[in-house]
């Protein structure tokens, strides 16, 4: 099983599909046998002066000129819409992505629901054994990509709790797909990105905890994230790859950095784990007692 190694390379694969893969055809174009594009006759009429004026007013020249694209780092900003609502914008290579901050990023209501995840959960309530259709899988892919872009936008803006919300949405979508997809290959092609989503969620949770509660709670969030990632690796018989995974290394480095900066030693949980690993069972028993005393009633 292959896991993502690059912070920005996870589910963006879904947005790289060509026209033939999505099953969508561009209106006004036809494709000949050598895949070149030909203008349909209906699109070759002369433009009127009014049409030319309308087209000239729809360009993004000034916007793109004033906001240069940086290929090495996401460029994101929070702006106000025409009705004064908050809107997220991300500068991409060929333009700008604009996303809603509430509900689904595209502002859509698929099948009358707040998101396609909500629609699938509603389907599950009506029929616990339902199987996703091709249309469902297509719409799930769309929603994965939308929430990915918004998640990394929130991370870039350091709105960590919003990044956590969008990561949880994606993980919940993956859970539904795992239960109802009906296509094992499709499911596995998406499950390979679960560690990456957990990784980004853990980053957000740790940094939020650091801001609000301090280093020790931040380290606890990192430990929880690493445990969740290990479960995925183990489930897919890839446990031997865990320690060498780049995302695991980055979270471990963040944990070490926090300990060094704030002069913190290993937590009781980590000491217990190490005692069990090295078969120091007497010490492990004492550590369990200490953890039990700290547990809330």
Structure description:
The protein is mainly alpha-helical. The protein has one domain. 55% of the residues lie in helices and 8% in strands. The chain has 12 helices and 5 strands. The strands form 2 sheets. It has a 3-stranded antiparallel beta sheet, with helices on one face. The protein has a two-stranded antiparallel ribbon with strand order 1-2. The longest helix has 24 residues. The N terminus is likely disordered.
Quick take:
The chain has helices spanning about 20, 50-55, 60-65, 115-125, 135-155, 160-180, 185-190, 195-210, 215-235, 245-260, 270-275, 280-295; strands at about 30, 35-40, 75-80, 85-90, 95-100.
| pLDDT < 50 runs, ≥5 residues | 1-37
Amino- and carboxy-terminal Cα gap: 42 Å
Let me know the number of strands.
5
Question: Element order, helices and strands?
Answer: HEEHHEEEHHHHHHHHH
Number of domains: 1
> Quick one: overall form?
globular
SSE arrangement:
Layout: H1 19-22, E1 29-31, E2 37-39, H2 49-56, H3 61-66, E3 75-80, E4 86-92, E5 95-100, H4 116-126, H5 134-157, H6 160-180, H7 184-191, H8 194-212, H9 215-235, H10 246-262, H11 268-277, H12 281-294
Antiparallel strand pairs: 1-2, 3-4, 4-5
What are the key terms here?
mainly alpha, two-stranded antiparallel ribbon, disordered N terminus, about 300 residues, single chain
